[in-house]
Known about the structure:
The chain is of the alpha+beta class.
Amino acid sequence: xxxxxxxLHDDNLYNWDEYLPARIFAYNTGLHSTTGYSPFQLMFxxxxxxxxxxxxxxxxxxxxxxxxxxxxxxxxxxxxNVKNNIIHQQxxxxxxxxxxxxxxTYKPGDLVFIKQLGxxxxxxxxxxxxxxxxxxxxxxxxxxxDDQAIIQQQVHVSRMEPVYERII
Length: 168
């Protein structure tokens, strides 16, 4: 939402709040690539009627409870389709990530640096170590200890960087 507001500024940068209703409306009525539906459609079980849309055909209900039944059926269909669309998008993201991901393996005794998680000072160290690899616990998890053998921990391979020894 912030990126959308940043694109819609006037000469006066302090009137961003005037654009909020239009941006929220566009977001809620726009088709989302992950779900395949707009948030409005998922919330109200119908597509939004915009001022420039042509009139739609009328729905005739034979019984008073027909409306509720139709909405329930439509909601179930939406949920099923959204679930399938989300699973499909997750698989696409995983494939893209796996294409870019390196697949390093470490042997016991290898030295590695471990990426620090959480908050740190702006110019603080990103990695700590070196740590010695003890053994592979899982295809992507290793147990390791620091050089004084005080701290032992399990670390995911995505947080590990090999130590390259300089040969003189």
